[in-house]
Amino acid sequence: MSRIACIDGRLHAPEDAKVSVYDRGFLYGDSVFETIRTYGGRPFALDEHVQRLERSAAQVGIPMPIDPPAFAAEIERALAAAANPESYVRATLTRGSGPLGLDPRLAAHPLRVILVEPLKLLPASMYRDGVSVITHRTERACDAAHGAKVGNYLASVLAIRKACDVGAHEALIINTAGQIVEGTTSNVFVVQGKTLITPPEEAGILAGITRGHILAIAGEAGLSVALRPLVPEDVRAADEVFLSSSLREILPVVAVDGAPIGNGKPGPHTRALHLAFRRHVGMGDAKAPWEG
């Protein structure tokens, strides 16, 4: 298995990959990005990810240096060069390099970087037993660019640090209105009865690609869907809670701020929905994630 870096269309070994210290992504977090994983060696929802990258770039005023189909083709080429059984991709677009200063006009040429890594899955025990999370109040950089997947993750880094300090897997972000919007790198769902509830995009979330596919197949697990704001009490009183992201798929949450969710074990609807998602991505014949 191998790691590959593709910078402005040129392939490099990781040790040879270089980006200027004057790049605004490094200096100011002035960038947008996407995280993609493969199934059967093929990138899942690649066009959706590249289109969202284009939307994020437009929201923060970074021009796309190449069109989305060409960007997708570069990702495919980097994946082929890595030749891993399964891969994790991070595709980043920065405003580029220029003299020091916040003025975005100082950068003339956006920089694109595609990193390919061998996919490392979470331990089966996390899916079998579930994980704990904390709640954390903060303001995020993306609040200034609603819906854009921006590279400035300092608020999330500090939140996940607090989670790690108490042995939790993730932090659920509470916004200034007192609502839980999402995790640091995940979307959050609760199950109440036979209803799947998750915050709407209007709440200020980043609408994950995996989130969208989960909502589309919820009926296969016998669940109706409700998009509405969540407050901490909604999460603590839920029958089931889970997180979603490209790399984690559907990860059950069994405790919030030290208090158990339901009976403290992954719930049946979460399990059923995860199996439905596996079928949806063409992995229905594989072992369930909690089976190792």
Overview of this protein structure:
With 292 residues, the protein is of the alpha+beta class. Helices cover 27% and strands 27% of the residues. The chain is built from eight helices and 15 strands. Strands 7, 8, 9, 10, 11, 12, 13, 14 and 15 form a nine-stranded mixed beta sheet that branches. The chain has a six-stranded antiparallel beta sheet with strand order 2-1-6-5-3-4. Helix 2 (46-60) crosses helix 3 (68-82). The radius of gyration is 19 Å and the shape is globular. The two termini are 20 Å apart. The mean pLDDT is 95.
Briefly characterize the structure.
This protein has 292 residues and is of the alpha+beta class. The protein is built from 8 helices and 15 strands.
Could you list some keywords that capture this structure?
292 residues, alpha+beta, six-stranded antiparallel sheet, 15 strands
